[in-house]
Amino acid sequence: MFVIKAQDGGSPPLSSIVTVKILIQDQNDNPPQVLYPVQTGGSLVAEMVPRSADVGYLVTKVVAVDVDSGQNAWLSYKLQKATDRALFEVGLQNGEIRTIRQVTDKDAVKQRLTVIVEDNGHPLRSATVIVNVAVADSFPEVLSEFTDFTHDKEYNDNLTFYLVLALAVVSFLFITCLVVIISVKIYRWRQSRILYHSNLPVIPYYPPRYSDTLGTGTLQHVYNYEVCRTTDSRKSDCKFGRAGSQNVLIMDPSSTGTMQRIQSEKSILDEPDSPLELSSVTGQARYSVPEEQAEGSFVGNIARDLGLDVARLISGKARIITKGSRQYVDLNRDKGTLVIKERIDREELCGKTTPCSFSFEVILENPIQLHRVTVEVIDINDNSPSFPKDEINLKIVESVASGSRFGLESADDPDVGMNDIQKYLLKPSHHFKLEVQSQPDGAKLIEMVLQNPLDREKEETHTLVLIASDAGEPHRSGTVRIHITVLDANDNAPVCSQPVYKADVQENSPEGTVVTTVSASDADKGVNGEVTFSIAHVAREAKHLFEVNAKTGEIKVAGKLDFEKSQTYQLNVKTSDHGAHSDTCKVVIQIIDENDNVPTIQLMSFSNSISEDSPPGTTIAVLNVDDEDSDGNGVVKCSINSDIPFKIESSLTGYYTIVTEDVLDRESISEYNITITVSDQGSPPLTSSKNINVKVSDVNDSPPKFDQSEYSKTVPENNSPGFSVFTISAKDADWGQNARVSYFLEEKEIHGVAVSSLVSVNSENGVIHAVRSFDYEQIKWFEFNVTARDAGSPPLSSVATVRILIQDQNDNPPQVLYPDQTGGSLVAEMVPRSADVGYLVTKVVAVDVDSGQNSWLSYKLQKATDRALFEVGLQNGEIRTIRQVTDKDAVKQRLTVIVEDNGQPSRSATVIVNVAVADSFPEVLSEFTDFTHDKDYNDNLTFYLVLALAVVSFLFITCLVVIISVKIYRWRQSRILYHSNLPVIPYYPPRYSDTLGTGTLQHVYNYEVCRTTDSRKSDCKFGRAGSQNVLIMDPSSTGTMQRIQSEKSILDEPDSPLEVS
Known about the structure:
Radius of gyration: 64 Å
Structural class: mainly beta
CATH superfamily of the domain at 33-146: Cadherins
Number of helices: 9
Number of strands: 67
CATH class of the domain at 33-146: Mainly Beta
Distance between the termini: 114 Å
Largest sheet: 4 strands, mixed
Mean pLDDT: 79
CATH architecture of the domain at 33-146: Sandwich
Shape: elongated
CATH topology of the domain at 33-146: Immunoglobulin-like
Strand content: 35-45%
């Protein structure tokens, strides 16, 4: 911008001023300048890519600037050439070179990339940079391919090389000398220890009659050595035991011993438990057995009759279940037979009831089977008929007409059938005959009928014999004598009001309850007209249950009535006067049943535990229900509570089974209380109940369940190894062992690394630990699977996905890419003195491998020779002039730029930029005399190498001098002893025995030989003893024989026998 003044030539002159502003339009006249990588000095290795690099790995970044402005400064990066275009790509806008696939072992080590940088001007201008990339994991691999990637020759100076070589050689010789000395010392020390503990005397003189191995002859005795080896030997060495007190051990060189190997066997018997199963009743059996059989008498072959084998009886634990307290029959499971356990008395068991039998059940388990067995007891004639009295006295009036009847008490025979009383015989029969009538209840009414009139004057008394006999084998009979006294006439007999009386009475009626009243009349008067009542001709039980008033005829209850024992009783009530006249009437008493018996419940079989996977219909219990009442009072109904998955079924009369009705789930309900209720139909009904508890055993049917299927956790990088990330947990609804959850890490690879090298999971509590420190720059996130597995059989498991997000930390300082700081100070840029304000000196290029705000970089000018001359762009790092350069400005300008990131805490890097303010190179060189490579490093390296070589050489020479001095001293001492002419004193050890002596070893020697169980040969071969077959030992010595190993140890060959020399 300038001012133009126009002035005329008048007087006074007039003028005007105009300001002219010239805008210079930028032209694309500057190509891009590549700041990084630096291309001076030929090709070089810019970056090295490990073979484990994954997709997207950042190789390097091409940094370029364009001094033009506007769109002429917009730069784009393209990959022009590449050794393998399928491996690398270049970011169009940022110039980042990244891998686009996984690096493999087949990729070439040497990769050469040509990147072209273009601006956006017209015409466009470009710059090309060559980036050499080494795909390798180590520098030796790189150097073998890149022959031009060598170090600077200053580092390969001949002096340094030879100094290092000399130091290495001298150090090697010195260390070798020390190792040899220490080895010799240790060897001699071990030899002295062997001699010290052997207690062998030094024998400089061989005694006479000594026999070496070259001598001829044989040992006078045979010595046997027993060698035993156990199967649990853990060592393969043959160890010879202590020799006791004997000091001479003579071994036959040709003897061999054999060791027997004993193998033990282990038998494992596994008997799994079977669940208890129940099946319905499959059969019934009926047997007949005479009464009074001896104990152990055979009843029947139950196994054969029910189609069972003996093994089933044994395995099913067959047993007999009876209702009562007495068991007459026993089961012999080994033979499958039923035998008499207790003497059976039919009369005691059944009385007069025929047929007489008793029943019981045979139950088997696993599976449960129920069989009903009925045994009929056959009566034998073991009881004789007997009369209630031995004698019967009758008084009969002589006026009794022919045909008059006189009732007699019947005899009683406990037997039944043909063994019961079959006939009565009356002797003599001149005046009387005998009539026997059968009554409805089975009793016999015996009457004596007068055939011929009596005449007291002719015969005042008569004696008769009444004989009762059965038809059994052998025949049995009973007698009673009848004494008849003939009285004077009493011609009217008592007459019952009615021949048959019927009455009902409740069972359990108290004693004294009036059942009915019997009445009779006698036409006579006076004493002959008085009537008395008595019960005659009844069964024994009825006499104890009822009584009749002799005067009034009232029949009362005298005992406890039980409807279940007898439902009807018939009494014969006799009416008689004071004379000889009598009449008999019948009284039929009907017992009315009362609901007085509570139903009973008896568990026949019960399993208190059931598996939750049992199918519906599985039986858990068998029970028997009984009510001794009759009719409706004895009809029972059995039920269980309805709020449980069980039902009750009737299998046989009086038998019920409880089975599962639905699928069981222990996780919902672990046990059930079953209430069994039984009620009859009486009025009022009687009820009984029984409670049983059934536990549901667990089955491993529920897999562990995580709280959530996916977990996500953020972990800051640089964590300490072993850091607890977080805890995952899974719950198992099962119980016990089935609910014990263990956690396992599912193996997988993450970026080529096993996940187990990153994290671990505690198998007991699910705590996830970091195995190593995470680096966000290498792994930003990863996920893996954790399996939760229970301890059931078979085990169940579930899987949860865990995602670990690595949180970036500001752990990486900025890296300055340009200007390059390696090799000491150098002139980076030259600024002409004509540079104007805002002149771009250079650009500090830095990167931060962190992410987010941790990678936001800011540039500040920390130090400067002239702070008023330069400034640094806060965001872009551009160094520009802030005023016009003048001649007064110093040529040498040193700027210290600090690059800081935005992390907490912030990290920084410092770069020194040397700027020369000059218009020509001679002017620069005259000022920058210190811009040469620093040689202090090489000088220091040479000094320390010479010093180290001198020290090591001194130590080595000193060691040699000491060794030679010691050797000369010992040689001189040995020469003095050699010329001393000292006599050799022969020494005989105590209790020495030569080979020609006779006798046997005085003591027994036990030698323990241990070998491993995997030895392929069991022979232990004792080899020849070399040049001496006599071992002389001090009796007091305690020690073991040493094993001498040759260069090739035979113990290293498992197929070879053990040889001891």
